[in-house]
Amino acid sequence: MKPNVLDATDLFVLLERAFHRRSRGCRGCLFSLPFRVSAGGGARWSVVASQSCSTNCRAILEDLLEEFQTCYRLSDSTHG
To answer: I need a surface site. Which of 30, 50, 51, 63 has the fewest CB within 10 A?
Structure first.
C-alpha cells in the first residue's frame, strides 16, 4: 500500500485528532509540526513532544508515530 502524501499542517491535524482520542484525560500535552528526519533513508518524519507530556502521553504519541509513519509521508512542499 502506497502512503498518502500530506503537508505538515494536514498531517499535524490528523495526528493531533488521533492523539486526543487516545489520551482523553489529557489536554495539556503538545507536540511540534511534523518535520523531516534523515535517519534511515526515505521520507521519514517525526514530531517533538513538549517537556510537560507525561510518560503515558509520550507512549501514546510514539505508538501513533509508528502507525502514521507507515501510512503517511510528508510532502516535499514547505509552508512557512
So the answer is: 51
